[in-house]
Amino acid sequence: MTFRKFNDIVYPIPGVDTALEVLRPGARYDLNCAAGINVTEWEDDENRLPPTSEEIGLEILREKKIYDYYEYERVREKEYPQIKDQLDQLYHDIKNGNLNNGEWIKSIDKVKMNNPKPEIPLSE
Q1: pLDDT for the residue 36
Q2: How far is it, in rounded angstroms, from Cα 64 to Cα 67?
Q3: How many CB atoms lie within 10 A of CB 9?
């Protein structure tokens, strides 16, 4: 099961393991995905049945929609200057009294403009 944290938001990274944890939290299992998604071993303290391949597939599609929505965040993270470079830019901007349009704000604004946050809120 894999999730990503962004600010106060935790969202799933799509996959069978994540789907199983969302659909049946706490269950223990083994999978065989050679010919589709097959649960080969299943233990659940709540005696729930394993989810069907269809349920897992629909959950993965839901997770992918969420994951795709936050793509801008992952791309921004890669494109922001390294922290040490940002601190150096800030230092020089502060020394020069240029916080409103200095190098640091320009570099951050460029990344944000090139990778805008979606205008439409995420709907599930």
Answers
A1: 78
A2: 5
A3: 12
CB atoms within 10 A of CB 51: 21
Supply the pTM of this predicted model.
0.81
pLDDT beyond 90 at 74: yes
Percentage with pLDDT > 90 across the chain: 81
Task: Please state, in angstroms and rounded to a whole number, the distance separating the CA atoms of residues 28 and 22.
Answer: 13
Given a cut of 80, whether residue 14 has pLDDT beyond it is yes
* Ramachandran region, residue 67 (left: φ > 0; alpha: ψ -120 to 50; beta: rest): alpha
Q: Which residues contact 86 (CB under 8 A, 6 or more apart)?
A: 80, 104, 107, 108
Q: How far apart are CA 111 and CA 96, in angstroms?
A: 23
* 3-state class (DSSP) for residue 30: strand
Is 41 within 8 Å of 30 (Cβ atoms)? Answer: yes
Give the span between the Cα atoms of 28 and 21, in whole angstroms. 9
